Amino acid sequence: MSYDLTVRPWIPVQFTDGTEGVLSLLDVFAQAGRVRRIVGDLPTQDFALLRLLLAVAHDALDGRLDDTDDWTELWESEESFDAVPAYLEQHRDRFDLLHPVHPFFQVAGLRTGKNEVFALDRVVADVPNGDPFFSMRRPGVARLGFAEAARWLVHAHAYDTSGIKTGTVGDPDAKNGKAYPKGPSWAGNLGGIAAEGHTLRETMLLNLIAPDSGLVHAAKDDAPAWRRPSGTPGENSAPDFADRPSGVRDLYTWQSRRIRLHYDSDGVHGVVLSYGDSLVQRNRQKYEPMTAWRRSEPQEKKLREVPVYLPREHKPERAAWRGMEALVAPVRQGEKADRNEPAGFLRPALADWLGLLVDEERIEPGTRLRLRTYGVLYGTQQSVIDEITSDGVDLAVVLLGEQDQLLGQTAVNAVADADAAVRALADLASDLAHAAGTEADPAKKTARDLGYAALDGPYRLWVSGLTRGVDRHEHRETWQKTVFSTVCGLARRLLDEAGEAAFTGRPLKTSKGPVVLDSALADLWFRSKLRRALPNGQTRNEAASP
């Protein structure tokens, strides 16, 4: 049996006309100009499949993509990926999902000591292990078609959970039939970020970082998994393993797991899955371009090494625009940069790459793209997936460049405006709760959520209009007025709903002496904080009103 992923349809896409389809690897590259984006079973699957396509493109274009001049030729060409068909034909056997010797992203003959075969729940991430009650697949997955199995196979290498797994024969780290935790698959550690263009062709090109840019590590022996020897049970013991990943091709196809699918003529019905190649997270910023990085002082103390950077994960409750500083802020980032200490965080190399393209005028400064974010929140010692996050923010690429740092800083400052205004709103909710004699923390959290939700759409619209030629001072003043008006509207709702007890108030000790905290005083405090937070936010009428 054979299932050749180069010609068999398995990658779900949305076309530019809004229709959807499923394409093979060959067709994805051939039709990339009329494909809008990948639409997998989960957002994280989209990210994993995109990285697979990027590895194919990098390897197929080897020698044709060295610097920004080469990239510009590809960007302007109608046949950007004309080298891909011959490349896929050359490596066709390694893309066979069912190959008897080297099946795609699997280890042939992988087995447990008791020859057990496990349910497909272990690779299908939308069926939580042991908690299937809210799944569309309740109670589990009995069988998958080959196309879907291939997608989940790629996803498992990117996002599989940690925890105790079944040991496999030949794995030197397995003990008593068990493989002990080594952490989630590589992409599961990341706050994933990808640039999305108007078509999949643009998306792939925007994320193709030229090796000579100096932004990512690019060794001469960089190669994807299908150009390396097939894996064996356990971690790779090859002499060069300590020097890997050798570049993005290696990293985007990193074999975090050892997997073998069990199938018959009707599809896949079981799986064996255990740990594969582990990868230390710290200081990989020159290897992994698709995440921001945060400095970890606890790790610095533990390892006695400075600096130590770890991937900066996405928080499920935090929209992408609220993390704007990690994307568009100037290079002089971090609270301690002025003292010649390492920055508190680093933006993704991908953002630096896009900034380089606009600074060198390889793309127009007004070009609009979407920065998409992908992440996983693991629970219970990272052994289960609790939540998957996905978001995006549209902006002009000029915000990422070095030459227009003040525009980028304006976008960051606008987020700070929103943060300060929402804090004032949350404090109002807390004060009203104290005045009424109820718990403050729940009221504060609810008000904070309401504030950010109300500002979400307005910020996205505002930042999409921030580009070269716009007066950034006027643009920010417009934003402050929007925030002021929006948050004042929410405050009026809180005051109207506060009730009689808050109107009457309660005694409260302050640093200036005892007061009676009631809704009127809470409102006064709120307005004072909001005016300080948004000095240019009031309209003339609002400033004149009592």
UniProtKB/TrEMBL annotation:
Taxonomic superkingdom: Bacteria
Region of interest called Disordered, as start-end residue ranges on this chain: 223-246
CDD domains xrefs: Cse1_I-E
Protein name: Type I-E CRISPR-associated protein Cse1/CasA
